[in-house]
Design a protein that fits this description.
The chain is mostly beta strands. Helices cover about 0% and strands about 50% of the residues. It has strands at about 10-15, 20-25, 30, 40, 50-55, 60-65, 70-75, 80, 95-100, 105, 105-110, 115-120, 125-135, 135-140, 145-150, 155-160. The strands form 4 sheets. It has a 5-stranded mixed β-sheet, with no helix packed on it.
Amino acid sequence: MRFYPITAFYGVDVPTTDAAYICGTDGRIDRSVSATDFFRTTTGVTVTLYGLCFPVGVDTGYAVGATGTILKTTDQGIPWLPGVAEGKVPTISPTAIRVVSNPSRHGIALHSDAAVRVSVFDAAGRVVMSQAATKGLSFLPLPAGAYFVKAGAGTARAVVTD
């Protein structure tokens, strides 16, 4: 038995009657090869992609995702290249962290695009927790209060209630 990774898909575009594209987690973009079969294209990114668009047919398309990622293809998705427009390449951050629910009860729920070290500071600037967060969802149990969550160069604010 073969197990396939679970992917959440967030965007779809059907530029022609013969081609469809879907995009989602882990930088995934798939292109249809028939009414029931898709193949995975190569994007070179691991962030979640939320939408894609082929404004004038199947050749040139754009995909957008987390951390400001914008990808472009000029040959039906083989390959996808970082870029906003010709000659311009955006900065792609490999790790993004988001507070899932704010305020939250009994701790901070967060989502990370990669495994990362997380530090939590209270309102007085003291470190109250420092630990590794896995890729995906993590929960940091904390007492009620206002906190700053720092991971890499990113910072988020969170409020915890009882």
